[in-house]
Design goal:
Length: 292
């Protein structure tokens, strides 16, 4: 057992957890499971794993074309900008007051900013967007323009279920669309995956990285877009590799959509993408000062 009495002690030693009890105290609802906030004691874990494993990098055994990354910018609407700045002021006041901002709460703060950039207003007890912001959705329009210039099949990753629905409807203007996400049964998702792989008329698969990031091979893909990112680095890396696999026909381009102010100043979407592309896990890095 390597000094651990049980799995509970193993979890507590190698991770910091935002427990159900913590969530009840902070947010007033029970999420039904504990959330991992950050890893710790990883040197010890590496020592334990080294005894029973060997590590070979993908680039050492596979000769695959390099990934090609690009960014597409869109401007927030006046209403989005108003809500974004109001939220920013509220959080700055809280941070400057000297209040301690735990990592889990900081992630919730980032989520609220992300939802506004996606065109929604969220609530503190629900990760899914709840109310669309009036005045148009420039992110959806940017995706529409991107899709109109593609040649070949494409994956679009979305964090929110509502985004999957909106994106699927919009992409249908350009070609046949299937979905792979948690609201469907395993059979429905398997059918969608097979259709995307083998039906030439299916040009798009819209997926959620928490459901479809692992165990799938979509190497016929030429384009991958991140409409809304998960904050987990593992979700990002695994989702990128659904297309970047043995048998791919050519290079794959990866596009992130990044909201900005009309004067060109960046929003938190820029920082989210920079951290993920730099292989930095947002959840394990963020502190109150970084959020500010």
């Amino acid at each position: 057992r390597n000094g651990f009495a049980d799995y509970v002690s193993f979890k507590a030693y190698f991770g910091v957890w935002f427990t159900r009890a913590d969530c009840m105290e902070v947010h007033g609802y029970d999420p039904k499971y504990d959330k991992l906030v950050e890893y710790r004691n990883l040197d010890r874990l590496a020592e334990l794993l080294k005894r029973v494993s060997s590590r070979v990098l993908k680039e050492e055994v596979l000769d695959l074309p390099p990934k090609v990354y690009r960014k597409v910018y869109f401007d927030l609407t006046p209403e989005q900008l108003r809500l974004y700045d109001r939220l920013k002021e509220d959080f700055e006041v809280e941070t400057l007051s000297g209040a301690r901002v735990e990592a889990a709460l900081a992630i919730v703060r980032l989520l609220r900013f992300q939802q506004i950039c996606c065109g929604y207003v969220g609530t503190d007890n629900d990760e899914e967007p709840t109310e669309e912001i009036p005045g148009g959705n420039p992110l959806l329009e940017a995706l529409d323009q991107w899709a109109g210039g593609l040649s070949g099949k494409a994956i679009v990753w979305c964090r929110f279920t509502r985004d999957i629905e909106l994106v699927s409807e919009r992409l249908a203007r350009h070609g046949k669309v299937v979905r792979y996400y948690g609201a469907q049964t395993d059979d429905q998702n398997a059918e969608a995956s097979e259709a995307y792989k083998h039906d030439p008329s299916v040009l798009f698969i819209v997926a959620n990285s928490s459901k479809g990031a692992t165990g799938l091979t979509w190497n016929m893909t030429r384009h991958v877009a991140y409409y809304s990112n998960s904050f987990r680095l593992l979700d990002r890396l695994q989702s990128e590799d659904r297309a970047h696999r043995i048998g791919m026909a050519g290079s794959v381009d990866y596009t992130d959509f990044i909201g900005r102010r009309p004067d060109g100043r960046k929003t938190v979407l820029h920082d989210i993408v920079e951290n993920l592309r730099g292989k930095r896990d947002i959840a394990s890095r963020i502190t109150g000062d970084e959020l500010r």
